[in-house]
Every structure is written in structure tokens, then in C-alpha cells.
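Hello,

Our lab assistant flagged a job as stuck in the queue for most of the afternoon. It eventually completed. Since we weren't sure the result was trustworthy after the delay, we are filing this so someone can double-check. Below is the sequence as submitted and the structure that was eventually returned. Let us know if re-running is recommended.
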Amino acid sequence: MIIKRFIENLKEKDIELTEKQLSQFEDYRKLLQEYNTKINLTAIIETDEIYIKHFYDSLIPAFHHKIEGSLLDVGAGAGFPSLPLKIVFPQLDITILEPITKRTNFLKVVTQKLDLDVRIVNERAEDYIKETSIKYDFVTARAVANMQILAELCIPFVKVGGYFIAMKGSRYQEELDLSQNAFKLLKSNVESVYEDTLDGAVRATIFINKKAKTPYKYPRNYSQIKQKPL
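-- returned structure --
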């Protein structure tokens, strides 16, 4: 029943899944439940909740903006939102940045089983930025940290003209208010905010547009970011 609801809800958003994509979501769900008994991946483990609160929720940004080109998922955990986006939009060029080795090992198992071409990097954002010159059309972060911290970790990876997509809960406005100086220093601004309701809870999708190159000194090391947010 939940899969039927999942399919119908996506159809309402003009997303029609193929049999292959449905099979990939089912395999993903099984792996998530299996591996969660061995390592801490998520507190959401019931099948119905996985489909709605992980899979459907991960696709919400695509309801409001065309997601194409390259995407970096910072602190993806068990692969959200990047892997559901990759299943639905296989042409996306996706890189996952996850510092916890047990989780990156899980992600490698999932991407191999689902035959998804995804780069998985086992590093922290503030370290990886020093090693790569690659910039992305989109950078996502879902339930990772507060906005002031996320902005400094994520926006430096965004191409000029691209977007940092922050996925937040009902208290997002408070975080946005506290982050205005960070956005200014990082040469970005909030372009649009969308509210969706997911099983009675507010889900905010915030598109932050990068207007100019990030000053070289950002991001600072994590202890500085945490102790003195922008």
C-alpha cells in the first residue's frame, strides 16, 4: 500500500517511476533495514516511514526546481537526499561527502547493488574543499547542522550562479534570520523558500543562490566555524 501511495504522490508532482526505479527503491529500503541492525544509519526504519520520510522527502527539491548537472551532497549519512535523486534522475552527476567510514562503506554497498554511478568521498567538507577545485551546480544538506554552520561548509562548493539547497524543519525561519551575515560574507542570498507538509510536519526547502566567488578564507577549520559562526 505504501508503495502505491509513493507512486501516486510522485505522479502528482509529474514524476513517473519505471519498474527499474521502483526495484531500486525497494532494494535500497531492504539494505537500509538490514544494515541498520549493524550500524547506526537512521532512527527511521519502518518501511512506510522510509518511503515517506526518507525517499519522498529527499525528492522534494525537485518539485520546486529542475535539478540537473552536478550535485554534491554534504553529510549524506545513509544517502539522503542524493541517492533518491540519483534513482529518479540518473543523468545527475552526484558526489557524496560523508566523513563517517561505516556510512561510506554502506553507501558503496548500496550504489553497487543499485548500479548507481556515484562518487563517494570519505572526508569532512572543510578538508575536502582544500583538495578539490571542482564546483557544483547544486550542493545539498539535509538535517546535518544549523544553517550558519552549513552555509560556511556548503556554499564554497557551489558554482557561481548555482544553488545551495538546505532542507529544514519547521523552525527554519529562526535559522535563516541568524544566517543573513553568513550569506552576505559568502556572496550568496536566499532566492526562494518552499514549505511542504510531510505527514503533518513542515518541510522547508531553501534555495540559496551563489552570486560571486567565495572569499578564499572560507571555510575556516571546523572548530572556528562552530565556536564563532559567521
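-- support follow-up --
The delay was a queue issue, not a problem with the job. The result is valid. The longest helix spans residues 47-64. The domain at 66-227 is CATH 3.40.50.150 (Rossmann fold).
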